[in-house]
């Protein structure tokens, strides 16, 4: 598969295929692709880039190398009040909070391509992606209680929806690791393939989606998120519907009438049963 670098970053790579796939790679293999604040800031920028690029229809999130997808927050820059930019800012924060929301909000399918460890905050990253393609060497798990941390947001709630409440509690309470086949059996990933076939399979899945209606995929993603995200989820679905309304004659009549300083004539439009 040929990828073209579309933007240069320090901690990640942003690449495009020639047929509508963006690939975002966390490129810190020396720490098993742990993310520091700068990594998350770059990830956020890359996802925004992929969102705005109308030639992109599917996005792959992955980690460099076969040892890890992502090992979560970089523990070397974890301070007493969160993660510190540059490792020494006086006050830290959780930059990844907004990234979770951004990935869910992004109206294009996001596919996690996982080889090796998806651990801690790295595990949550794959949970918030729409699909997960796992290599046979993938290992999944949470470490929060072991390192004095937890993610009670999507990291707990979405996981419970994906694997069931008892299993989700087991994953968080015991901090065990699970192999790819076990992850498949519990509904945590979509498929497992040999590592050598990981990228080709992920690209195939993306291409299958690229052949489908982008608006239908967008509305499906919003629909799956709607009840989980409460009013924000309904808002996304409603605004997507508004996009469609704007494209029709009925909404155009309202806008045109306003611009022409006349009363709108909606009598020509059906009151649908
Ligand atoms: C991934 C593991 C299992 C890999 O084991 P392996 O293959 O034996 O390699 P190691 O020798 O352990 O590691 C190789 C080198 O990489 C460094 N390293 C690995 N992970 C990290 C990391 N997360 N941060 C910094 N460095 C890391 C190792 O130190 C080693 O370096 P050298 O060679 O110099 O010794 C294994 O490495 C492992 O278990 N890693 C730690 C996993 C972990 O606990 N991650 C953090 C979990 N917490 C979060 O992710 C929190 C996320 C978050 O931001 C958040 C979100 C919402 C709410 C709260 C939080 C919050 O932060 O609390």
Automatic annotation (TrEMBL):
Organism domain of life: Bacteria
Any one GO cellular component localisation term in the record: cytosol
Pfam families given in the database record: ECH_1 (PF00378)
GO biological process: menaquinone biosynthetic process
InterPro entries found in the cross-reference section: ClpP/crotonase-like_dom_sf, DHNA-CoA_synthase_MenB, Enoyl-CoA_hyd/isom_CS, Enoyl-CoA_hydra/iso, Enoyl-CoA_hydra_C
Leader sequence residues: none
CDD domains reported for this sequence: crotonase-like (cd06558)
Record-marked site positions (Important for catalysis): 83, 246
Co-factor(s): hydrogencarbonate
Statement: the UniProt record of this protein carries the keyword Transport: no
Keywords: Lyase, Menaquinone biosynthesis
Pathway: Quinol/quinone metabolism; 1,4-dihydroxy-2-naphthoate biosynthesis; 1,4-dihydroxy-2-naphthoate from chorismate: step 6/7; Quinol/quinone metabolism; menaquinone biosynthesis
Function: Converts o-succinylbenzoyl-CoA (OSB-CoA) to 1,4-dihydroxy-2-naphthoyl-CoA (DHNA-CoA).
Family: Belongs to the enoyl-CoA hydratase/isomerase family. MenB subfamily.
Protein name: 1,4-dihydroxy-2-naphthoyl-CoA synthase
Record organism: Conexibacter woesei (strain DSM 14684 / CCUG 47730 / CIP 108061 / JCM 11494 / NBRC 100937 / ID131577)
